[in-house]
Write a structure and sequence with these properties.
single chain; 478 residues; PmbA/TldD fold; 2 domains; seven-stranded antiparallel β-sheet; 10 helices; 20 strands; 22% helix; 37% strand
Length: 478
């Protein structure tokens, strides 16, 4: 059987070249061929089994500084059926019609002087880096096995304690596939690349009831825990996921508000990711050229504590956000965004870099049916040397945040306010659970006030951080 990546690359090259022959000055073609499986079990019984495959081709064509973005799932006979041992296609007629119509659509778009390909010679060179993004074993997990994994995880949660009274269920998901990207321009060199990738996860969500009756009955507490990885062998066992989900749920029982005041706040890795994602939104080149970031004109200055170093690194083997090239076809590269508290650069794709009179640093992402945009790969707050226990040490009274809710962030002013839940810190130890409070600060002050970064980095997600401590934030409670 022919290599599916090479098969997709060939078609992407043909599509981009066909668009140029049809009148486009340049064209980009991206193809995704993927299969996915998702099952959900609740109270031991399957609630959902979804298995599907999809093939989509996205096209962006340029003509007279105008651009059109289109996509289709109708390949006609341009590709043999998935899994076929034949490499013979049966014709490109449907695809040719789609490409011709896409070129015509470009004539109707508004012109933009920045609508053109990246500079010649800037594309990712061959061979592409091997980042170990695909696991054949994950694809072999059947629906029956996925149901068994979910059942085992939920059963472990429900059997952990009689305080677990119900369940939102357990979900096992896997995706696997190949993607290819090709660029062609009239009278200039192009690019083609492709790779296979996979990802799988298991989430368990038990429910516990409060012991005391409220005005509307017993309040329910939801909790969850999850495991995820590109390689199935790196997943935690369903039993351990279920037991940890139950432990976290039970720990929330008896949660209540605390008194309003200014306190030290420790963010666990799950909650800290939310802050890191919000920081990305004001570090994006798009926010900078639109002048919608409080970090305008701040390069080379301190925007965070000297303990804070943030890196965007797409070249980590097996990591969730890794990729061999970016959404503009440029080589992946490691970018130090914040170094010891100093803002070194913004994240830029080709378009935002041109708007700012700069050069892209390889931070473009894209979906099959969309234009490139600024994104992260593995966006990481680098771990420190302290332990999570040391993050609590010395705090007479503070808040340990495990959950953030809602959205309250003004990117222009930096004002930040989010609902939060977690645990009260007393005398350097976690004490009673806390809920229905709000944590607030100015984002600039928040990042500058970090006085400890722990070593327990959580890499399950492409946005990753360890436990960290903010010297003081305002807590609105009772």
């Amino acid at each position: 059987m022919r290599d599916p990546v090479e098969e997709l690359k060939d078609l992407a090259r043909r599509a981009a070249a066909r668009a140029v022959r049809s009148g486009a000055e340049a064209a980009e073609a991206m193809i995704s061929d993927s299969v996915e499986l998702s099952v959900k079990v609740r109270l031991g019984e399957p609630e959902l089994v979804h298995e599907a495959g999809s093939r989509v081709l996205g096209l962006r064509v340029f003509r007279d500084r105008r651009a059109a973005v289109t996509y289709t799932s109708d390949f006609g006979g341009a590709l043999p059926p998935r899994g076929s041992r034949s490499s013979e296609s049966t014709g490109d007629a449907a695809l040719d019609r789609f490409i011709d119509e896409s070129v015509t659509l470009a004539e109707l778009a508004e012109p933009d002087e920045l609508n053109e390909l990246p500079a010649e010679g800037s594309f990712a060179p061959s061979p592409l880096p091997e980042l170990e993004l695909y696991d054949e074993a994950g694809l072999s997990v059947t629906a029956a096995q996925a149901i068994a994994f979910a059942r085992e995880g939920e059963a472990a949660a429900r059997g952990y304690s009689d305080k677990i009274t119900n369940s939102e269920g357990a979900t096992y998901s896997r995706t696997s596939g190949a993607t290819a990207f090709a660029i062609e321009g009239r009278g200039r060199g192009g690019f083609s690349g492709g790779y296979r990738s996979s990802y799988q996860s298991l989430t368990v969500e038990p429910i516990a009831d409060e012991q005391e009756e409220g005005p509307h009955g017993r309040k329910k507490r939801n909790g969850h825990y999850w495991t995820a990885a590109r390689f199935a062998s790196a997943l935690e066992s369903p039993e351990s996921v279920g037991r940890e989900a139950a432990r976290r749920t039970i720990a929330k029982l008896g949660a209540e508000k605390i008194e309003t005041g200014a306190l030290p706040v420790v963010f666990d890795p799950e909650a800290g990711r939310g802050l890191l994602r919000a920081l990305f939104s004001v570090l994006s080149g798009g926010a900078i050229y639109r002048r919608s970031s409080y970090l305008l004109d701040r390069e080379g200055t301190a925007i965070a504590s000297p303990l804070v170093t943030i890196v965007d690194d797409p070249l980590i083997p097996r990591a969730p956000g890794s990729r061999p090239y970016d959404g503009d076809g440029l080589p992946s590269r490691t970018n130090v965004i914040v170094e010891n508290g100093i803002l070194r650069t913004f994240l830029l794709d080709t378009y935002s870099a041109r708007k700012l009179g700069r050069t892209s640093n390889g931070c473009a992402g894209r979906g099959v049916g969309g234009a490139p945009h600024v994104t992260t790969s593995n966006f990481i707050l680098q771990p420190g040397t302290a332990t999570p226990a040391q993050a609590l040490s010395g705090i007479e009274r503070g808040l340990y945040v495990t959950d953030l809710m809602g959205f309250g962030f003004n990117a222009v002013t930096g004002d930040f306010s989010r609902g939060a839940a977690g645990f009260l810190i007393e005398h350097g130890q976690l004490s009673r659970p806390v809920s229905e409070v709000t944590v607030s600060s100015n984002f600039d002050a928040l990042w500058r006030s970090i006085d400890l970064v722990a070593d327990d980095i959580d890499r399950r997600s492409s946005t990753a951080c360890p436990t960290f401590r903010v010297a003081q934030m305002m807590i609105a409670g009772r």
